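thread: overnight batch results

M.L. [08:02]
morning all. the overnight job finished for the chain we discussed friday. pasting input first so we're all looking at the same thing
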Amino acid sequence: MAKMMSVKPVQQTKNAVDRLFQFMNMMAWACLIIGVVTSLWNITHFSDTNLTLMVGMGFLIGSVFIYTSGAALHLVSQKLEHMDED
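M.L. [08:03]
and the structure it wrote out:
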């Protein structure tokens, strides 16, 4: 099935995956920065009732998931690209 596809759609797909990876990378960094700022906003009240601390931790954890998902997508697309070359 992959052999039947022409070169142009494969190149367009590769460009789309690269743009998606870059976007997810930027969003992961943005979430990380937002998470650090909101976590440190009111760090003196360190408890589970501190809303800014909990939201900040959510952004920190979310940034890891976003980055991991983007990296996995990028690695899978590279693996498929190498398989198509063989």
